[in-house]
Amino acid sequence: MSWKASARHGVREAPGGFALVQELLNTRAAMSYGPDLLGVVEDAQWWVTDALTTWSRASGLPAPTLLLAASDLRSLRRLRSAFEQVVLAGSNQEPPGSLPPADVPVSLAPDAAGWVRVVPTGRGIRWLASALWAEALLAQQAGAWPRLKLCHNAICRAAFFDTSRNNSGVWHDVSTCGNTANLRAFRERRRLLGHSEEIEVGPGPDYH
């Protein structure tokens, strides 16, 4: 099993540390071929260790070693749902509503070149939440946030980074979710057409 959540879907990954947000979103069960990586502690521990190692390498910032307990799984799933709401609101896939507050601290620190960096702070899951919201903020400032999307296939919802020129992608994979949706629409059109024909060729009025 791959503990890298996004790799299970074969999607293009978001750049740099922003990929951590995409990783969290892709911990959801991958349709019929992968479990929810936040379902049990062992899976979640493997995932978070791998994800933070990759994030640290991409961001150039140190990441703590998070040792998860069963009580942390609910917090992780709640955090995942919060990011799903924010992504869906940004792509207009769901009507606007009340979005969850982040309520996490971050630190601002100048680096060796004099640039101010956003540095996650806190302990345990709160540190992870701090890192995730910081990456979301940085992605919005860089203009990359609108390209992180959830697949329009409701039973898939894989998070993918849209690299199309006009940012028009809606499926994580056109050959799977896209074709499935097109086939479903085609069958529905044929069903409606057949229903219309049945009405048109029905018996005429009875004059007796």
Automatic annotation (TrEMBL):
One family name in Pfam for this protein: zf-CGNR
Name of the protein in question: Zinc finger CGNR domain-containing protein
Limits of the Zinc finger CGNR domain: 147-190
InterPro entries on file: ABATE (IPR010852), ABATE_dom_sf (IPR023286), Znf_CGNR (IPR021005)
Organism expressing this protein natively: Actinoplanes palleronii
